[in-house]
Structures are given as C-alpha cells and as structure tokens.
Amino acid sequence: MRDVQNERDHRNLPIDKVGIRGIRYPITVLDRHHKEQPTVAEVDMAVGLPKEFRGTHMSRFVEILNQYRWRIHTAKIAEILKKIMEKLPSHSAFIRMRFPYFIEKAAPVSKEKSLMSYQVELVATLFENGRKDTVLTVEVPVMTLCPCSKEISEKGAHNQRALVKISVRMKKLVWIEELIETAESCASAELFSLLKREDEKYITERAYDNPVFVEDLVREIFLKLKDDERITWFRIEAESLESIHNHNAFAIMETNREP
Fold it and tell me: For the structural domain made of 131-259, what CATH number should be given?
C-alpha cells in the first residue's frame, strides 16, 4: 500500500511537535514509602518532524505504549523515548504523562487516616544529539489565610484554598512526596481528605496563627528549594482562589541554578 505519510514534502518546513494527545493508559510511578504506585495517566506523545517528511505514523505511538503495557514505569521514560526515535523518523521525541498520585495522611488530632490525591505531570524530551530534558510538576492544594484581613478585622480573617505548582529539573531523584511536603509546610495549613471536629478546630486555628500572602508562599518555597543540589531549575506558582474577591491572586518565581 502507498505510504502517503512517508512521502517527501517540498515545503521544507520542519514541525516542532506532531503526535497523539489525551490517550489514557495505566502506568506505575515511583513511591517513596511503597516503592511503586499504580495509577492511570493521560498521555501525550510526539516527535519533531524533519522538513522532508510529509507526516508521521500516529499508530506507532500506540504500538509503543502497547509494547510496555502494564510495565509503563516513570523510571523507563528514557527507554520509551528512545524507542520512539527508533520507530519514527524525527529529530526529537516527546512524552507527557499527567496522573493522580495518592498519599495516605493522618489527620492532625484524631489521627484518622485517609488518601489525599495530588496532580502530577512528567514531561520528557529526547533530542537526536542524545540530550534529555525532564520536568516534573506537582500540584498541591493548600490553605492560605490573609495577613491583611487578620490585621484589620476584629473577628476572624478570610481564608481560602490555594493551589501551588512546583516544577523541577533535577540531576538526582527528588521524590514527589518531598515537593508536596515543601509546599504544604509553607502554607497557612495543609489540606486533608478526612477531618473530625477536633481536626477542623486545629486546622482553623493553625491557619489563623500562620497567615500568608501568595507572595509569602512562593518566597518560602523558593528558600527551601534554592540550596537543593539535586535540582538544576525550578518554577513555583501559587494561585489563591479568593473567597471574598471576584478574582484570584497569583505569584510566580523561577530560577536556573546551572551556569
């Protein structure tokens, strides 16, 4: 049969990324306490298409996933990218996996245990010269209480849920749990799936005693990450889902530790 996608293209225009997006697939993730954790990821896969090719073979992305079925491990991403480069003419290979990650947490007073979910994204690229680029992003919901509101109010202060996103490039393993703990430790209070009344009292009072702006939040996280020798680059974003305003507040910091 005629291979139309493999035909010569005369427009001489390379494409940065072409591939498939949004396929859901079971994967396995490194887990600090249990070694591994099964989850389901939404996967994007792509290649950088050279200018001489009209198209790429989309079915081969799925074929590669099927070769690794039940064995798609985040620790094997480099191997999967290499397989993409072997199967498809390209100057780069790209994969993005977005998945929920679960941690068992005990409530602060009652010690009732429950599972808390966090959204994680792993983006990796392999270039034809062998260079690799991997970015791990963790989204952490937290609680913030407004220092200004506390200062000017006679009764209470407004508080809200906030979302922290920490993205890192690393030369040695940084656990997902470590990034989550860093974000939670810098907030007014952390969140839990299950809280009894005594826990709610504790969280409410803790937040009141520890007010933070989004500016405070990103700065404190920055200070905790800046001297971590395993991390070569990081980006921090905090967005406060404001409870008394018709808008959100956000702050972003980014740094590259490599020369």
Answer: 3.10.270.10
In the DSSP assignment, the letter for residue 246 is S
Token look-up 């974000």 returns 183
Domain 1-103 is classified in which CATH homologous superfamily?
A: Urate Oxidase; (3.10.270.10)
Burial of 155 (0-12, 13-18, 19+ CB in 10 A): exposed
Q: Are 169 and 123 in contact (CB under 8 A)?
A: no
Q: What is the DSSP string of 42-105?
A: EEEEEEEE-TTBS---THHHHHHHHHTTT--BGGGHHHHHHHHHHHS--SEEEEEEEEEEEEEE
10-residue stretch averages of pLDDT, the chain, 259 residues long: 60 86 93 92 92 78 85 82 88 95 97 97 94 96 95 91 96 94 97 96 96 96 94 96 91 84
Contact between 220 and 124 (Cβ < 8 Å) = no
Gap between the Cα atoms of 97 and 108, Å rounded: 32
Q: Can you give the pTM of this predicted structure?
A: 0.90
